[in-house]
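Bug #77: duplicate submission created two jobs. Keeping one. Sequence:
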Amino acid sequence: MSKYLNLGLGGTFDRLHTGHKLILDLASFYSENIQIGLIDEKYLLNNPKELGRFIQPYKKRHSNLTDYLQSRNRRCSIVKIDTLGKDKEIASRSDLTALLVSQETYSGALAINNQRKMSKKAPVMIILSPIVTADNGKKLSSSNIRESLVEKGEHEIR
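Kept job's structure:
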């Protein structure tokens, strides 16, 4: 039985890797109703990421995410995040009962609970996901993967 009625999480999900899959599986452990905020190109243009020009297109990331979720028999709703703050706006107004976040996004979850408090909504439970490390001992991240691909000349240009 799921612990939370509705759980949310979000990110870029570039080059879907083991860390992403762990988080998605963890989300499924906590809830059967999952809402994923997926960052699109418009957001990335206004909020650049490291080696952002090598991030896969939104459609490819959406497709990879959907394929993985279907392979695990998971049904999730995916919401496009195109502007800074939209994720917090959606989470503040929604019926989410929990958020699954990383160390990097923990402060955003606190901001969401502040917004919920101001609008007289119950706070969401904040679940901190574990950090996944690669074979080299570094944190497994899409930024590190993009950097490695660029160094090897194997990157995909948008």
